[in-house]
Amino acid sequence: MSKTILFFGDSLTAGYGLPTSQAYPALIEERLKEKQYSYKVINAGLSGDTTAGGVYRIERWLHEPIDIFVLALGANDGLRGIPTRETSINLQTILDKVKRQHPEVKIILSGLEIPDIVPGRYAAEFRKLFRELALKNNISFIPFLLEGVAGMRHLNLQDGIHPNAAGQKLLAEHTWKVLEGLLSK
Which intervals hold domain SGNH hydrolase-type esterase (predicted)? Predict the structure, then answer.
C-alpha cells in the first residue's frame, strides 16, 4: 500500500514557469520510484499563495491520507513585508490543522529567507520565525529551501525569483536530505 507525501506551498513548489514534471515535488517522486519507495506525491503548490491563503486552502487537502506533510509557504509573505508574527501564526495554524486531522503525520518545514538588503530587522526576524516554529513543533526542518539558488542568475528564470529546472533540482536535493530519514519502505 502506498503512502502519501503532500507538498503544500506556493510558486516554488508549483514549479512556476516550468512543466509540472520539473518542479521539485515531481523530482522527489522520481527519486522515490528509483529507490523503490512506495509513496504517492501530491503537489499542492499554488503560485502567489501566502500563509493566510494557506490557512484556508489546507482544508481542501485534509481529507486526503497524508503520511508526510511538507510545508513550504511564506515566500510571498516575505516579499510583501507581511509582519513576521502574522506569518508565524498562520504557519502554526496550518500545522495545527494538519496534526489534528492526521496525528501520526511526519512534518517537514521548509525555511525561507529574504535578502538582508531589506531595511530594519525584518530579514532576521523572517529567517528566525521558521527555526522557532520547527523547534516549537519538534518537526523536521530545511533551513533554507533556496540555499545556493536565490540570487544565482543561472539557476533562476528571467524574473530572477523563480528557480529554473536546474534550480528546482537543488530544491529537490535540499528536501531529499531531510525527507529521506522520514521514509519507510
Answer: 7-170
